[in-house]
Amino acid sequence: MPKAKSDAPNGENTAVSVDDDDFALRSLQQAHAADRRYKAGKEELLHLYEQMLLIRRFEEKAGQLYGLGLIGGFCHLYIGQEAVAVGLQSALKGGLDSVITGYRDHGHMLAYGIDPKVIMAELTGRHSGISKGKGGSMHMFSVEHRFYGGHGIVGAQVPLGAGLAFAHQYNEDGGVTLAYFGDGAANQGQVYESFNMASLWKLPIIFVIENNQYAMGTAVKRSSAETHFYRRGTAFRIPGMQVDGMDVLEVRKAAEIALEHVRAGNGPVLMELNTYRYRGHSMSDPAKYRSREEVQDVREKRDPIEHAKNELIEMGVAEASLKEIDKRVRAQIAQAADFAESSPEPEVAELYTDVLVESY
User: Fold this and answer.
1) What CA dihedral angle connects 349, 350, 352 and 355, to 10 degrees?
2) What is the chain's percent helix, strand, coil content, to nearest 5?
3) Could you read off the pLDDT of 225-263 as tens digits, one per residue?
4) Contacts with 328 (C-beta within 8 Å, 6 or more apart), sequence order
5) Which of 38, 98, 217, 226 would suit a FRET pair with 18, their CA atoms being 20 to 30 Å apart?
6) Cβ-count burial of 340 within 10 angstroms (0-12 exposed, 13-18 middle, 19+ buried)?
């Protein structure tokens, strides 16, 4: 094996390997390139399609309720990015694997099977919400479902995700953590501290960068020197994968490759999911930093739901059946909105619960 030349002034033998056979940085990307798409049967693809449609219709309704003043504060919609959460989380072990994300979190909860009613109730600040109406859009949480937020501080969920992975490792329960963050958060220092620790300790975690191209409103190429985010783990010996986040079957296949690597005790994986959000950063963002033509072009050529729909039609599923699914999903979302609007707001005494008080 070739060795690097030593520059030590005292002539000590400090030669290091420049070709480490144990470090196959590109092996996962190569495995993904060799077999990019998950082989889903008709029923399985129908399920994935319905899950994406549920997120789309939920977010559309959330946007309407925000416009009516029934949702306060910030509200970040997931429209356009549905294939990421659905494709990845459909490969997880529900009730065991942990999920943590940033403030654009409604879709991830829905993809993990959480009831749309309690999510919508949380958005509208009702006591029946999953965080008793105190978390709102950005800070939802469910220990029962292994969903740990919903975090408003950019990038803060990444070290917390490393902590969740450490808990899985410590408890020897076989669980894996999926820690989502965006292209904007990818330049945070705490992200790289987490990479380093996770790699050192071989933590069971998949770091997922949802690259929706614009962070809050600045294009990736204007904010990041290295725009191929899946390479960002190289310095920490974390293998990376670049995935089309608008194709649910490609996402699902990549998830299986990454999970197999992590569950085998090989340490973390970094995945870059290239996706696109159709709405602004939040409901208050007019998104003037991009053209309507650009957004429309993605909608027409790359929409993840339309992509899955076309595949289902090719499989022999009748368009009438797909319309029936949409009708059923719309009814489910309407029920969730009615439930939220008719639920009571939290009592004033609720302000004093779930508060951690310690003396120092």
Assistant:
1) 170
2) 45, 10, 45
3) 999 999 999 999 999 999 999 999 999 999 999 999 999
4) none
5) 226
6) buried
